[in-house]
Amino acid sequence: MEDSIHEIEHEHINQCGNESKAASSLSADKLLEKLLRPELATLYTDLKAYGERALLEPLPSLSFRLYSQFSDTGERKAYEQAYFDRRGRLAAVAMLALDTARPDALQALEEMLWDVCGEYTWCLPAHLGTGEVIQVKGNIDLFAAETVHMLAEIVTIHAERLDPLVIERIRFEAEQRIFTPLYRDQQKFHWQTADHNWSAVCGGCCGMAALLLLQDESTLRESISHTVNCMNAFLSGYGEDGGCAEGIGYWVYGFGYFTYYAEMLREYSEGELDLLTGSKIAAIAAFPLRVHLSGGTFVNYSDSAEQEEIPSGLLSLLASRVGLQVDLPLHIPMLTDDPCHRWAHLVRNVMWSDPAVYGDKGAFAQAERGFIFQNLGWMMAKGALDSPNTKRTNDAPLHVAMSVKGGHNDEPHNHNDLGQFIIHCGGENILCDPGAGLYTQAYFAPGREQLFHISSSGHNVPLIEGQEQSSGRQAQAHVLEAKLAEGGGELDTTLDLTSAYPGAASLARYTRQFHWEMSSDGSRDRAELRLIDRFQWKSRMVSSGERFSSEDESDAGYSSIVERWMSRVQPDVVKSGNLRWQGVHGTVRMAYDANHWRVFTEALDTVDHDNVPVTFYRTSLSWTGVIDEMDVRIEGPDPLETVCEVRFIIESKMGEIEVSQCE
Q1: pTM of the model
Q2: Is the backbone of residue 376 left (phi > 0), alpha (psi -120 to 50) or beta?
Q3: Does residue 176 lie within any of the structural domains?
Q4: Residue 624: predicted pLDDT
Q5: Could you tell me if 20 and 100 lie in one domain?
Q6: Which among 73, 109, 126, 278 is most buried, taking Cβ atoms within 10 Å?
Q7: In which domain, by residue range, is 499 found?
Q8: How deeply is 135 buried, as exposed, middle or buried, from its count of CB atoms within 10 A (0-12, 13-18, 19+)?
Q9: Residue 250 · residue 303 · CB < 8 Å
């Protein structure tokens, strides 16, 4: 894929079009016509409410006190709230100004554009270290790139009505802050070769601004070459399976801006430069639908949320370009749904959203019922359960799913979560992943693996000999088996996770085995996940209270095992050896061996990525079995192995289910 992009670029770059072709779809009249479509009525109402409020209030100040908070305390939220509110107000007013009968909106737009041009930096303090002038000058981060792109498109859309001095000021600031350091001086930035979202967002935003604003043909050609290189770097972070290690939220961000630039470049070059081609691009485009579980809830490993807004314009464009089958209902995100109020998503939701590609019965029928991401190391299976009530009332079936994560512990936005799994039922991840925590200085600093959202302590993985999983590329899940039955009715997966626990001195090998199947007892459908964890030890262990020792005292250590299950639902004990998590539409019950495992649940209060309080319930199974080397029976348990076997049974909420202890 990468080679073909380079070949196209070198062959046709000198024959590209001009800036008017790149701007042809950014017509104020066309945009207003699209905005007034009936399916965008709610979006338009949201925009008007936000915009009208912005007309009455001054822009929030990006004061020195706010700016210095990050370097002084590590706090970044207050500055960023003001920063993104400024961008959101600018976006809303720019849309209101499409109406030529609103001179007040146009005047306010000019003031806002002038104000943004006067900001000390377009970067976030969190990306500038101590924030001194030498770090600010010529620096380009995600949001400096997004800002120049936003300004370039607003100027293009309103070119005929904006004061020429405002336009000149924007061109000047774009040149000084972006084009000169990036294309003329060819300053090096870390994101130019990054294999994650930064290369696509920074490269794509600057590249789109260049297509719209640059008038120097040689520099414009340099910008295309530069941006294509960034896009190649971005694509190198994906395997042929199209899986995004950063999670669904960063798929939206990185691949979204890859797509936005690709479409503008295709338009600019009259189809000669087309980055949205090939099997790998098609696989990447399919990622959000493959990790969608049901009801708008997604697999949310890494720094992603369970409920993610997929831009309707992006999905519509991908459906038309790569034949994506969209099995989601149409939902056009509001500007205020996005805490960053991103202009690129907003405008393309207006321009590209196509209700015809959503909710198609054929798409639902063709939706994949499971998928194994061979390169990424994620596995998932999906299905639907009928119940007597469903069959009697013709209600929709209960959608259930499970997902398992392999990979390694040095991924972009990494969590130490090898062997993590999710159980989904009726639009709800009942056994869940905590997703992203609040971004602070500590979140990206050394020692970050101690934080709840990042540590293995916040995931459905065990504590072994008092040791959490370690960070680093060497901590890797080795896939021993990954087999998905046709239709997704069965999934068998076995992972070797030994390397994730180098601190567990007595551990010789740890494997985690999953078997998922859909079944029916004639009256009720159900899904079952059987999980078997095997811990093999380097030498025979003997009991000494809570502490264990081996025959070789140099191997002394804790042989204790604590399994953990995370949920937003507080479980209750049905009877000894049986727990139940009662979801909104379905029930998950767990059967375990109460003779050897002690259960307890604790409430853990934290905040999510948006600083909203959330409580997780961590249920732990603690190993209580004792092996005495003087009482080893030939047919008894292997003294060098501890096994935890549990069964999770998933059914609809109504009715009773028979459960039994693990054998």
Answers
A1: 0.89
A2: alpha
A3: yes
A4: 83
A5: yes
A6: 109
A7: 368-652
A8: middle
A9: yes
